[in-house]
Amino acid sequence: MTRSPLFRTAGLPLTGGMTTICADQVVTRGWAASVTMAATVFTVVTAEMLPVGLLTPMAAALHVSEGTAGLSLTVTGVVSALASPVLPLLLGKLDRRTVLVGLLVLLAAAGFLAAVTPVFTVFLLARVLMGVSIGGVWLFTMGLARRVVPEHAAGPATSLIFSGIGIASVLGIPAGAYVGELFGWRWAFAALGVLSLGLAVALGTFLPSLAPERPVRLCDVREVLQIKEIRVGLVLVALIVTGHFAAYTYVRPLLEPHTGPALIGTLLLAYGVAGVIGNFLTGALRPTRALIVISAGIAIATVTMPLVGTTMAGSLVLLVIWGLAYGGTTVSTQAWAHAAAPNAPEASSAVLVGVFNGSIALGAFTGGQVVDHLGTTTVTWLPAVLATAALVVVLANRGQRG
What parts of the sequence cross the membrane (predicted)? Predict the structure, then answer.
């Protein structure tokens, strides 16, 4: 069995006297690094999704429509999608720990800029900077767990790191909504800046030096895209994520007429708790089975939203189903991609993250057009249709991945 890079860096045998104590210390540091990366994932997801819980007051303060305000999510997604495949080529052999620290400092600067600007175009510039940071963090986090913990613990460490996605829904996005209600939406972005600076320090402390596993070249990306299973996985990501964010970006104006603004944070909290549970439940399944559950769950929750989600109780039930389903999307699609291209982790992660973030942008933009021209209540048909299409694709390719 191959030892993790931390054990190799320590240069110690794993048995015998004092060296065993030192190895235990290295393992402890590996788990501390995993927890720090989970917090980092939490922060970048919160940063990207923060407008979801603040959309209505943010649009009013910046003097734009809710659909236009949703472009702040679109811009971030587009930049993240472009940054993910480009950053490995630009950064070359630069230590990934240094890169991650720099990306968190950039995120902090963008958060502070978003908090103080009175102009929507400058706010979009802040979101562009966030997109660069988010795309880079996603990319370099994808295969990180197996580099900082022993091989047998890579699976649990991966689930821990990506639990930051669900926890962001549980704490980050609802907290942003609560802060917005109590102090104003700008303070939510200021808090994001402070948190990002703290994490930059933590990453520099707990992460080991992480040289690239191998330089990523354009030909690596082309080779990965020639793998049929990778292409199928990217289609699934595009369908599920585009559909999800077409409606989820506008969940606040969708729910407010039935629940009132004071309860939005509570409903988002319920969604987030379900997302954390879904992350671990579907993460334990084989990729194909997990994606079947995810697609079916999203389709059921969103197609019934206009009928059942007209009361507080109905909205709560459907958001829990929606959260349970979508919560495992990142872990499941990553597992699919890694199984399809195990020898090209950064290249496969680059295309996966690129399509993922591009789909967030497309979903937010498409949903915004529907909201502005057809009304908020019709936007849930997009995830219902696209998740059903994803279900058809995964069933047609169920022999690809177990």
Answer: 31-50, 70-91, 98-116, 122-145, 157-179, 185-211, 232-251, 263-283, 290-309, 315-337, 349-367, 379-396
Note down the domain range covering 367: 21-396
Q: Which DSSP string corresponds to 215-232?
A: ---HHHHHHHHT-HHHHH
Torsion of Cα atoms, 130 then 134 then 135 then 138, to 10°: 180
In a domain, 2, yes or no: no
What pTM, to 2 d.p., does this model score? 0.71
Tokens at 340, concatenated: 């399809």
Helices (H), 183-286: 185-206, 218-225, 228-248, 251-259, 264-283
Give the CA radius of gyration of the chain.
Answer: 20
CATH label of the domain that carries residue 300: 1.20.1250.20
pLDDT in tens, 283-297: 677 888 889 999 999
Question: At 41, which amino acid appears?
Answer: V
Specify the residue for token string 């209505």. Answer: 56
Instruction: Please say whether the beta carbons of 133 and 195 come within 8 A.
Output: no
Match 């004092």 to its residue by tokens: 18
Total count of domains within the chain: 1
